[in-house]
Amino acid sequence: MWRSLYAASHENHAMTRLIHLQPLEAESIYILREVVAETDNP
User: What's the pLDDT score for residue 9?
Assistant: First the structure.
């Protein structure tokens, strides 16, 4: 039982971390697209 609780807790922590990183990833993709657009058409 403890093992399953630990696994569930670890999985929840991993999902929370991924959800936290999604906005940062989206912002970095946006910045990269803006940089590419500026170098294509300064």
Answer: 65
